[in-house]
């Protein structure tokens, strides 16, 4: 079994969401700390981002926040994380999320989380990013997005092999198993990037 040393977690900054999402985030965070995995995330102090960082810190794990300077100016950033990286803009932030990670984990989120996930899927399709991308589909939250991706494959906009770009899981306690069960991916994927 491959050691999962560092992951990036995409998740929400909203505080107006159901408590089940906060509870699931705690479970994911604890599983990662128990595995001695460093977590990179968007750096926020609120919503699922804040829950993720707080739980990791409470459990004595390591968490790295990455955020553009302009967000720091409005006090969005978590001040207690182990390390903080401030970037020039959102594009640089997304690039930094992927540096040296063994996997990307997507928890429920809004348009920012969707955008980060879709860019990662696109980069993996092109073979630029090759690590596992796992999506926590808690209570069917991501059903519409996964249905759209599957429709794109069925309609020929993506190829059948592209279903292996991501792995869906529904139990937050099984985040590490989801990563380990992901299909291997090659940087030669550009050869079959077209449907």
TrEMBL record:
Entry's EC annotation: 3.2.2.n1
Coiled-coil features, chain-numbered ranges: none
InterPro entries: LOG (IPR005269), LOG_fam (IPR031100)
One matching Pfam family: Lysine_decarbox
Top EC category: hydrolase
Keywords: Cytokinin biosynthesis, Hydrolase
UniProt keyword Cytoplasm, yes or no: no
Reactions catalysed, as given in the entry: AMP + H2O = D-ribose 5-phosphate + adenine
Claim: Electron transport is one of the keywords in the record: no
Similarity field: Belongs to the LOG family.
Identification of the protein by name: Cytokinin riboside 5'-monophosphate phosphoribohydrolase
Organism: Roseivirga thermotolerans
